[in-house]
Amino acid sequence: MEKIKIIFVGTDHVGGELLQAISKLFDVMLVVTGQDKAAGRKLQLQPSPIKLVAEELGIEVFQPIDINTNLSVRRMANLNPDIILVMAYGQILSQEVLDIPRIACLNVHASLLPKYRGASPIQSSILNLDKRTGISLMKMVSKMDAGPVYKQLVLGIDAMDTGQSLAGKLAKLSAEEVPKALVEIEAGLQPEEQDESKATYCGKISKADGQIEWNRPVQEILAQMRAFDPWPGTYTFFNDKRLKILSSEIREGAPSGEPGLVKREGIVCQDGLLSPLELLIEGGTAQSLHDFINGHPDFIGAQLK
How is domain 5-202 classified at the architecture level of CATH? Predict the structure, then answer.
């Protein structure tokens, strides 16, 4: 039997395990990924995580500035793929691209659609204190994340999951289950339409989203810290300097004082106390709470902003 011919489209590391898995079973003809980006203090060009995986596997890599140009469309169409498989790419695909494959353009989306259409489903599930999330394998249409769904794979969210740990679990789940679903789709599996009345949306995350608002419930603040680990992280302002809180725990006791007030037993939130365990002041290095207070004795009694 002839192998299914696939073009894989992705940029973020979350798609790496899936690319490895499908390369063992199918004919991955081309990997389309984002361009190399300047990073680090020396601003050296760094390849995307997906490019690194593709090069290790010996698969041809294509890095267009815009996947929707005539040149890009011709490059992919000339390969006559059965499926274009997309996971965490970062560009919207035009109808011309969607029309290329024999079977369909498929997207692996990290939520149980129609919940959390958009760019930040993993973080949103943690921010909203959800108990479960998952993967949706859908047929792509012109409207964002609105296509009919072939398969949904459910995953529980642990109380201490971070954005990074949950992404890793979803990546593993995708690598284990999506290849099986591709075989079923090639054999004729039909997708089911989404319920538009239940659709919710999540936008792109920015650094500003990491700022802590201390007048919120302590569980929500802790969820924010988990969701935005490792990026953009969570921070507040102490003595007009950005102070990152790298890890923390909830402390027993009723809050007294203005939200954001630093007390020995913790930082006052709307309905509780949050004790930072590790902090990083702007221009400094990561420190335990004990070491930070030794170097900044005015931290106790400060009003964080």
Answer: 3-Layer(aba) Sandwich (3.40)
